[in-house]
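Task: complex structure prediction.
Instruction: return structure tokens for all chains below.
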Amino acid sequence: MNHATEKEAVPHVVIIGGGFAGLATAQHLKNCPVNVTLIDRRNFHLFQPLLYQVATGELSPANIASPLRAILENNRNVEVLLDSVESVDLENRCVHLAHSELNFDYLIVAAGSTHHYFGNDSWGKYAPGLKTVEDATEIRAKILEAFEAAELERDPEIINDLLTFVIVGGGPTGCELAGALAEVSKRTLRYEFRKIDPTQAKVMLIEPSDAPLHIYPSPLPQKATRALEALGVDVVTGFHVTDVNDRSVVLTSRDGQVHKTIGTRNVIWAAGVKASPLGVQIAEQSGIALARGGRVPVQADCSLETDKRVFVCGDLALFTDPEKGELPGLAPVASQMGRHAAKCIRADQEGRERKSFQYFDKGSLAVIGRLQAIGTIGRFKFHGFVAWAIWLLIHLMYITRFRNRVLVLVQWGWAFFTRDRSARLITGRHRWEKEDAVSERAQSA
Amino acid sequence: MNHATEKEAVPHVVIIGGGFAGLATAQHLKNCPVNVTLIDRRNFHLFQPLLYQVATGELSPANIASPLRAILENNRNVEVLLDSVESVDLENRCVHLAHSELNFDYLIVAAGSTHHYFGNDSWGKYAPGLKTVEDATEIRAKILEAFEAAELERDPEIINDLLTFVIVGGGPTGCELAGALAEVSKRTLRYEFRKIDPTQAKVMLIEPSDAPLHIYPSPLPQKATRALEALGVDVVTGFHVTDVNDRSVVLTSRDGQVHKTIGTRNVIWAAGVKASPLGVQIAEQSGIALARGGRVPVQADCSLETDKRVFVCGDLALFTDPEKGELPGLAPVASQMGRHAAKCIRADQEGRERKSFQYFDKGSLAVIGRLQAIGTIGRFKFHGFVAWAIWLLIHLMYITRFRNRVLVLVQWGWAFFTRDRSARLITGRHRWEKEDAVSERAQSA
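Output:
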């Protein structure tokens, strides 16, 4: 059936993706004379910048996820549809879903990005990336199971591999993970084992360039490196990954001369993202050439060169700012683009001129660990405690709903003062749970 | 290898299961001259009485689960072992695990219970029970997906089946689930859908006896029935389930004369539990006859008739109190038995006489919904708000760790005043996520 036909004769806006961009569009079309359908495969919006804290057992998934229907409850012109997009047909202005199809007058494609293994997708099996709630709980289980397996193991070499954590990619996520992981081993698990010493765990951060967080102006990358090393993280720069398997990671120097093999059972991928495959369809149908990383170049108003009524926002889009150049794939960029798309639609309805998108750079911050962060706000550079405090405030402000904010604050407070992380659940079937095991435990049996 | 040999020559106490019973034993052996090994397949202790709130989206799993290692961090004589028990050898005083084996001087079997489909295990596929964190998140997804599927559906009959929730079993868990589910549909989801009306969802509670919670003295079961009906729950008494499939549930009256078929896609099993299969092994090796539900009859000191150094505690044990009769499978019974086993071991070490186990009945309460509960404390019966308030206090007191208490309180407070439940995540792959779907959403892509 066709949802659009059931609506009054006002424009139908279809939004693909309930991330920062898509959600912003839906929210800013409130009271605008259009019908909106927001399509997502999940029933919740995820506050992705804090996902690494779920992976390291500080927060629960629900703390950083809000049900889309709840967020949009009072946006009466918005319908949330849980379905997956099979294909987009720009010419016939139609979106084909797994269970239905939708006609649109306006289309906002905010389908985001996914992990990118640079052509080595087989690595994904050994080096999970961190994009979804499932990724986070899997990585959490992987990390905790490594310590558990080490406690059961007798072979010192295997114990060493189990307690070696390699994080590939020195961007914000990689640094945040490395810092948090160092704290998990040095503080949280410190006294919890009887045979192994968790504080002896190795955390390595692999960065091909000269320093992690190199997108930040000097001296911030250097400050970040020192902060990470102070936490006990082994920062390896100038090397990129040339192989990943179940036992080890192979690193190669930039000049290709030097090779290192690191024995490890725990590799986490924080290296690259690739835009959603929907970009390819749009390129084919519009004739627009995709930019690096499969991103779709958009006009000054975030719409397609070939179609003013199709907008591409967020990580999937490539917006080139006259002064600032190519905008990065960050949450603030995504939500501002999404809001701008809504403004353009509103302008169309009211017969006004569309404005060009102006990205307001609130700055960006990366946390390294307890009390440590680096970042820039406007022309100002911050590091250490000040940067960390600003990061804390900004993230609390942005967590979508009030209640989550309180919960996150309580948990951060607890984790900060006790150095404990109690969202440390290994869920799902795991290695020492056998189908045929007769043992049943009091509560899980 | 053999853990025991690595220890000094003090008795080795092996505890199977980190539930209420096993954990209590481990904790109360603190500073006792014994080495303790606690075996569990999970790395956390679960506060099972609140599991239904995870299933209905009010709490996150981590709020009611605490890492066993963290709880026992300062019990230096306790080693936590994540492994599953394959078999117990009472004669050779040895426990065979999936990855090792353990000799014991004392054995505490606290392996709990599992769902019981009365010989119809095939029903499990359609009627999940609520025992583990995975059960809870699966049931949560099942409930939320039913509303989502109904929103997409056009066939009124299928919509009706999707919005019909049948809970089998009118015990505490069944009543708590029914009450919470009624509130989810009537309050939480009320304004969140555009095509269906969630408040029209049917919640049915099936109880073979004359009233739910019939273990409680009159007039409490009647009060409970009225409270449930006030919430919109359809309480069906005098019928038991004779078939469950993917489309419906068949009910049959006690006399076998009347049959009812209820179209539903959502059946939740809260009807029966069966003791862990380990009980069978113990029975075979000790010659002790298992009691109803596969429970192992124990002596006055909670040990086996045939072996003073093997204790069975919690749901797996059947303790018959001279005055109170058979003790029920409740958390307080389990933890008191576990503690008693520890006291007996301590008495042995100090050359004192073992005492008989005295169950101190603090009473029991069952929540029916917002502000509604029933229960008994000693000779006193409570219902309505008073019972609910007492339930709230007791459960807050018992949640294992401080931080969880605060989190639970914050979430209860929020849920209470806003009637919102925001731990409403549908996680894991689900029906409208296809392997080959090209749609990727901004944050989960």
